[in-house]
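Data deposition worksheet. Section B asks for the primary sequence of the deposited chain exactly as it was used as input, without tags or linkers unless they were present during the calculation. Section C holds the resulting structure in token form. Section D is free text for depositor observations; keep each observation to a single sentence. Incomplete worksheets are returned to the depositor.
Section A, Depositor: J.P.
Section B:
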Amino acid sequence: MVVGAFPIAKLLYLGVRQMSKPVANRIKAGARRSEFFKTYICLPPAQFYHWIEMRTKMRIMGFRGSVIKPLNEETAAELGAELLGEAIIFLIGGGCMVLEYSRQAANSRRKEEELNETITGLQTEIAELTLTTETLGAQLREVNRLLVSFPVPTNK
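Section C:
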């Protein structure tokens, strides 16, 4: 029974992707507890996201000049933590995709190099066989020339 190569790289990527959600949840929980994360990491993107979202909704509904009130700190921290968690999951997934792409590209390059080596080897072998054929053809012509030059025996 022939067993194919075990796709250990794919299994590792799958494990990393599965671990990304709990890791993101832990980072979100830490971001909610830390004042630094809350103030500088979570709140600005959350307020910006809220501003873009509300501005888009207002324009769709036809309210062009409406003033958008910022979120309160607790809601903004929660939204910022969610955005941070989603960004982490997205980055881990993107990293896995980049690694898989580079691995596949390396495999493709390796196979192409092997194919080129095979083609070069076959071309070399064809050249050697052509030379051998030409040599044998020349020897055959020489043997035919010698045969023709022999005198024909007469029967008495």
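Section D:
The helical segments are 8-33, 35-61, 73-149.
Residues 110 and 119 are 14 Å apart (CA to CA).
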